[in-house]
Amino acid sequence: MNVRTRFAPSPTGTLHIGVARTAIFNWLFAKRNNGKFYLRIEDTDRERSKDEYVESIKHGLNWLGLNWDGNIVFQSQRVERHKEVAQALINKGVAYHCYATQEEIQNFRDANPGQKFISKWRDGAQYYGSSLPVVRLRINDDGMTKINDLVLGEIEVKNGEMDDMVLLRSDKTPTYLLSCVVDDYDMQISHIIRGNDHLTNTFRQLQILKAIGWKEPSYVHIPLIHGNDGRKISKRDGGVGLEEYRESGYLPEALFNYLLRLGWGHENREIINAQEAIQIFNLADISKSPARFDLDKLNFINQYYIRSLDDEIIFAKIINQVNKELLNEKCLEKIKKSISLIKSRGQTINDLVDLVSIFISYSNPIDEQSKEILALNESKQILVNILDTFKDEQNWNADMLKQLCSNFAAKYEIKISVIMKALRAGVLGTFKSPPIYETLEILGKEETMHRISQIIDQG
Length: 459
Known about the structure:
This protein is mainly alpha-helical. 47% of the residues lie in helices and 11% in strands. It has 19 helices and twelve strands. The strands form five sheets. The chain has a three-stranded parallel beta sheet with strand order 1-2-3. Strands 4-5-8 form a three-stranded antiparallel beta sheet. Helix 6 links the parallel strand 9 and strand 10. The protein is elongated and about 105 Å long. 33% of the residues are buried.
């Protein structure tokens, strides 16, 4: 089987995660069958298409590891070919010039709700006006059009329910329906894998294929991704662009894994990387039901992949997002030492960036919980006394600090949890941090005592 798939986004916005999932399925099916995966930019909407969105699409695919074959096909560069096919359909007698205005069509629909518009020019009526015509495909009113979908099974509609579709607008620009068919044929696409919101388009595009006598590709219509309310995913549910997830600290391998599992599964496995997926991907495993977007599950998978990374890689990713003006050799060394402590405590790289902020600067705002702790006289007294306890200690390490605080608790008859809270508030200013003793070890004695002294001096 000579498999050739394509991903054909419109550059009218950034790459949405739902569209990215479609790209993943196309890429995997091609790779699984030693086929080709092509990228086509459907940019015929010149007003809304922007070069920046083309770059966003390319960058997003590269970020996910979805390499395409050959050169990118830009639909806007193939307009003459699309018009050529429209003319061939006119010459064949299956397409015609229609002079009906939008106002006439709307008046008909208002007067005949539920009925399809039938142009009086479909059967050769003469026109003596001066308006420019559109080109319509003459659709047979009899019979059915069937799709043997490789996921959804056989689906059919009555031909009589479909209008004679427009192939060329009055300005001679081709419509999406025509351009898509011609490009798929010329690119020799064997399998069209896309969302099931394209089902209506497929039925209409099949009419074009039959009219011109071209072989039909195989079709796969993927159920859409829904949010928690059971409706098509929205921004509120997490349905945003790929760039937003990248900027929020999600790893490409995690997002690939999660999107792959949205509507597809294999033996209930949750963690599947790209190379494993190539070996096992099967269209038969795509669900017929809509998938539910679950941000908690995405966070779980992202955290799994973070834990799997080498500490050096995590360090590089963190440093890439930190203000370089705040860094010095001491900060870098402390952050390196902290990676093993924090890598299991963050769901995203951004979480880890927040966690290491305690090693970069103490100018960060003290959180509300720390303010409440420091407002207690007991906490202030603990910091005064523990500063005196720390000053003579030479073996500054986590085990020593734990024993020191335990002795301190016994001496002053204070719960160890109260001491730890005072230390977190006074030294770190946040309760979102790695274990306190290990954190103080990384900070070092000098920095720890300096921070405690600052809090005491502030009163």
